[in-house]
Write a sequence for this structure.
């Protein structure tokens, strides 16, 4: 019996669901739909609103549950009757399935092309999910998953790539562009041969059972190896083939004795299943390698039900691709490949609707909604459970904007936002997981404070804490659960869980309080700078102020101690905290030299915290550049994250300061001072995903200085980023751990100015 | 129980056998050895002797007979103890086999490299057996076998070629030269997978049983076809794949109901075996096609126990190669591929002996000894029989000379000796088989006459007639039994059977008689020509005489009637038989024009019959050219065939005529008149296999006219041959059938002169 609870946790938000698409397979069915969800503040048409958002739900369930799933959907979705539902099918009896869906849901069923859907779905996920792609290294026991991003820089394209689908058979498709693909090869040896022969040989076609058997089996008892054929005196030099290479699959089985043993001995049955698996995966690997011999891409993605995150299959396919291509090709896998065809079906349906005036999901960026994804959605290979309903889920949220790699990233160096990879850096992972565990209760206190009027706040905060701690535990076991484990993901997940439980912005009140305080103090700070005659000295002082502002941070434990420990932790006290020069990283002089040599005529500043940081640190710094005749754009987050200022808050702050400062008011009116948002909602900054409007602006305004401020944006991420224009990375180290890592002390200063780095040898 | 008789007919000539080599396979063993045999007159060191010849024996027998075969050999071979025997093995338990051979024969066993042996053996057979290679066209019910020769012209090389061995696994080797080869690919899917999985699935690994099942099965019940997956509305344009293409082998078997059916229903078991066969052969075809994508050869030879002349496998492999290569490659098969490794082993052993001073078999040409080959050796695929010993045999005779393509063949046109292909020309085949059947008793009479002193002659002649008629019956059923069926083969086979029964030259006496008669008449014929003043008229008359001489032929029924009908059929009477000009083909004037324009300064004449033909036709014709200052070489057969003059006989004749004619005597002394032999022993002339000494001579002497005389050499063969120098084809049509075919009458004359035909458009 399925419990409604289990289905509910997979098939969520059905009441406002639409755009259904089904992918009907032999054993599993995937259904995809979009729904409207209540969401935190967002920007629509340049106005701050509290609005609904769009979420994409992808659910994968056993074929046998189709009737129950259809009934469940039919009972909950409003206005579904008469709508068109896209489907693909590789099921032999797809007509019966289609009839069931059509009759239960009362919809029109439109068959869409399987291959087109796979391509559309793959394009969608490659464009929207960072770390969608990985290579699998079985022999690296610490870290078997190595994730890759197709769109690291504005110069990257996901095309061309090659998609190998291992289903009943195997097909190889070269994808040249969004809708431009060609079938370049295939084979009749695939999952059909594996399951069909397994069924005939041992009476089971259950993939989980078979793969467990294969893991345990020893193919050398079944296959003829090169050394079996050529004898113990075989000389490897002759053919260049290793002696333990399989010369002939099942080569030992035609022997009478052997065949009798197999019937009786479960060990031999395991050996046979392993041999069968290797026969198929070697065949796939060989044909793919040979077909790709002349292809100019190493972007080789495997999908299909034979592959689907099964370690033994990924291992054998990776081996075969490497072997047959003589190391020139590498097998890549996709974390969410199960959903490609169903997502592609929905994309096709939406494209058709777009022609009728609806919005195309491909025109927006989407974000993986970790908090709503099941284990598989988070890429944790798992063994079967006893759960009655084994639905597995991927959810994505529409960003309502299009995000692109930041156009000023250097084309000469591959961009990786993260300074530390928590998958491979075990010490760093331990530190961050512990920090996150310790922080959750403090966060929950803030969250409850932010909704003092809500009687459910405390209860919801408890659930948040429990869920987040569970997730952190999951990451201790399987650090690859979100792709590359990094600080960004840990923080994003926390935000998502808070939002999932209606805490849209736990620091809301705190931020308001500090912004108001800082705005009132701004004239004093500005006056002090204005009183200085020398422009260079003024800018030096403003830069020191930029750093002092960065001391204020509710995200850093050491600072929270300071801020909570005294009645008022003033801006002047923060300036006093900044150590004497030379700083840990100190290229202030070079930065000033270049500025007064006429550079930096158009600058963009990625800001960090609310309150003193942005108001008393960033704004006076920007104001000095305005005096020098430069254009300035201040870039905040779009969405809330800790006490970081959001675009909505920045708008309010700028309106306030404009009333108090004539230069700022005039600059804003004239457009030499602008505010923008990055599109993000994280204490970190991922320059692979920047609001396309900001991307257009930095090109249009010929930005020649990128300033990145704060620990999350300039140290945890982007510390090693290279730009095609000069950049200034400015932050104060506020955690003991990072100070130790960077060879400094608490409150050490990083003021790292770098000229054009298109040529990395500079 | 094996009868000694059965073993005796396979393992022949053991008493003088040496150079043993074994190829030990999983199910069959191949043994190869050479032996000395008594033989018809031969040329050794330019002297006519009656000598022994060397024969190569290749025998293929079931693995289970190894002990009996070894005992049989041990009992019969003299001086075997302590010799070295080469072997290759792909048997899992080769050590036990090797021990058995070593201990029973008392020999040293030397393991030689499997791949080297395959290459050496293939090179040997490609170089020595015409029509070794064929393509298989299952859908051409009249003629499924199309034979090819690798060495058609002096410009051809057998290299490079690609050898695909489908044994337990599959390997692809590119062969660039005699000992230069490289492994370029392979696969684990081959015979091992076929037999191993078949054994596990249905309990049998018997190839004959399995192939019969596969012939009867329907894989569409087992495999998922493209149309099964994409549904009935599948659009072929999308992927470019036909709807009945196998998308996934065994794709329908994972279904529970199906698996149960297979257990109980023999029909489904057949379907599974067919599916398995197609899975393997498609896989082999695909991998080979992909590996050869960049190879610059279409010489693609399949061998290995999975291939071995099995029609269904050749059919599916041919289909797969064509499909996967998109028609750019064609699968070729080898008639005697079973023996490659064993022959190669012997070649390697002989090469080692050569270093110790023995003769290398690769330095000589070899001829397929049809009369000693079993069905398989003659390439007749057969179903298993009840014979106790199922040995199958190939025999080759050493020519003791090296034969090469005639160097004056035009490089611009592919050479095919045969004017008529009896495989595809059913009417011609019927005519020739009937002619041969009818002729055998006349031939036997001549043979008995030639050995009047022998008391066993009549009995032996009866056996010859019986055997030859049996062979002709076999050819009616399976015309591809010797490769391309043609007049040459029918005649060669008859010669071989006579020789096998100690009739080394049935027309010996007849030829002697006629030569003596003609020699005595020569002065008269010469005097008549010498009496003519005009050189051009003289050459015209001599050419007419050349044609008149060709009327004398014991091979033509119509002429035999003439010759036996009257007391003396004189040369003058033959001249009278020649019709008035213009002849059926008449370029006499052009021939004369060119001669008297200064061409034809070095001529070679391929002669035909003994007696008047060569003595009164060819010699006076040659004598006219000697008068014109040209060099002349008269080329006869080396070995007896009908009443054709042999080299030994020609030597005698020339000695006689020299005593009677001063000009001839002087020319012979000065070397302007020479005699040579072609190396052949057939009424036809195959210019692909000419004694290399003659090949060297025609180049050294700058031969600028090739004269080919007689029906067998100029009409049945070579009528369409193109040369790089002028040629004259001269013959009288002496059979009604050929006259009808050529649009003439009996005794119609062909006098076909062609200038340099290197450019076929001339």
């Amino acid at each position: 019996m399925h419990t409604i609870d289990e289905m509910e946790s997979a098939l969520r938000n059905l009441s406002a669901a639409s755009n259904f698409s089904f992918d009907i397979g032999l054993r599993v069915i995937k259904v995809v739909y979009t729904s409207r969800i209540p969401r935190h503040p967002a920007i629509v048409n340049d106005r701050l609103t509290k609005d609904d958002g769009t979420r994409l739900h992808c659910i994968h369930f056993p074929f046998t549950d189709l009737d129950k799933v259809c009934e469940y959907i039919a009972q909950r979705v409003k206005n579904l009757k008469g709508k068109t539902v896209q489907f693909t099918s590789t099921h032999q009896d797809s007509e019966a399935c289609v009839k069931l869906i059509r009759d239960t849901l009362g919809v029109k069923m439109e068959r869409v092309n399987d291959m087109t859907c796979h391509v559309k779905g793959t394009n969608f996920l490659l464009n929207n999910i960072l770390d969608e792609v990985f290579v699998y290294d079985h022999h690296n026991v610490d870290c078997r998953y190595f994730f890759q991003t197709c769109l690291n820089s504005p110069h990257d394209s996901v095309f061309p790539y090659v998609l190998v689908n291992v289903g009943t058979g195997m097909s190889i498709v070269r994808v040249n562009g969004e809708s431009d693909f060609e079938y370049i090869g295939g084979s009749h040896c695939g999952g059909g041969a594996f399951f069909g022969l397994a069924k005939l040989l041992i009476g089971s076609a259950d993939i989980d059972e078979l793969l467990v058997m294969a893991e345990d089996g020893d193919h050398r008892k079944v296959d003829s190896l090169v050394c079996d054929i050529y004898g113990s005196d075989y000389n490897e030099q002759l053919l260049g083939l290793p002696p333990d290479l399989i010369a002939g699959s099942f080569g030992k089985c035609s022997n009478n004795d052997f065949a009798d043993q197999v019937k009786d001995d479960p060990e031999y049955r395991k050996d046979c299943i392993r041999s069968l698996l290797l026969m198929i995966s070697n065949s796939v690997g060989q044909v793919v390698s040979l077909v790709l011999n002349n292809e100019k891409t190493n972007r080789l993605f495997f999908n299909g039900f034979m592959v689907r995150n099964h370690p033994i299959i990924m291992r054998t396919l990776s081996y075969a691709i490497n072997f047959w291509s003589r190391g020139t090709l590498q097998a890549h896998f996709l974390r969410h490949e199960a959903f490609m065809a169903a997502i592609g079906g929905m994309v096709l349906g939406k494209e058709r609707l777009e022609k009728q005036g609806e919005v195309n999901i491909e025109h927006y960026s989407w974000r993986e909604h970790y908090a709503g994804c099941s284990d598989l959605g988070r890429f944790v290979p798992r063994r079967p459970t006893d759960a009655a309903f084994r639905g597995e889920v991927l959810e994505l949220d529409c960003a309502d904007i299009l995000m692109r790699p930041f156009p000023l990233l250097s084309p000469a160096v591959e961009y990786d936002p993260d300074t530390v990879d928590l998958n491979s850096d075990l010490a760093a992972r331990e530190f961050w997981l512990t920090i996150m565990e310790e922080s959750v209760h403090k966060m929950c206190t803030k969250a409850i404070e932010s909704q003092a009027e809500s009687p459910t706040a405390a209860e919801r905060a408890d659930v948040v804490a429990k869920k987040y701690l569970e997730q952190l535990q999951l990451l201790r076991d399987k650090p690859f659960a979100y792709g590359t484990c990094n600080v960004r993901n840990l923080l994003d997940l926390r935000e998502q869980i808070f939002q999932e439980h209606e805490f849209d912005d736990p620091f809301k009140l705190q931020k308001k309080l500090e912004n108001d305080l800082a705005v009132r103090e701004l004239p004093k700070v500005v006056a002090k700078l204005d009183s200085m005659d020398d422009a260079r000295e003024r800018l030096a002082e403003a830069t020191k102020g930029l750093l002092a502002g960065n001391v204020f941070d509710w995200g850093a434990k050491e600072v929270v101690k300071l801020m909570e420990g005294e009645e008022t932790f003033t801006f002047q006290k923060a300036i006093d905290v900044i150590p004497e020069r030379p700083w840990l990283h100190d290229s202030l002089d070079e930065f000033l030299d270049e500025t007064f040599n006429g550079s930096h005529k158009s600058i963009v500043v990625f800001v960090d915290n609310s309150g003193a940081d942005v108001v008393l640190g960033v704004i006076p710094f920007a104001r000095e550049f305005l005096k020098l005749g430069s254009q300035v754009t201040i870039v905040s987050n779009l969405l809330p994250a800790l006490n970081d200022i959001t675009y909505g808050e920045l708008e309010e702050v700028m309106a306030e300061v404009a009333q108090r400062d004539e230069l700022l008011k005039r600059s804003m009116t004239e457009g030499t001072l602008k505010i923008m948002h990055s599109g993000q909602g994280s204490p970190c900054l991922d320059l692979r995903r920047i609001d396309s409007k900001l991307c257009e602006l930095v090109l249009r305004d010929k930005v020649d200085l990128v300033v990145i401020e704060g620990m999350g944006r300039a140290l945890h991420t982007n510390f090693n980023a290279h730009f095609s224009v000069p950049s200034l990375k400015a932050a104060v180290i506020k955690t003991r751990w990072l100070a130790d890592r960077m060879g400094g002390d608490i409150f050490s200063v990083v003021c790292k100015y770098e000229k054009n780095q298109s040529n990395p040898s500079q």
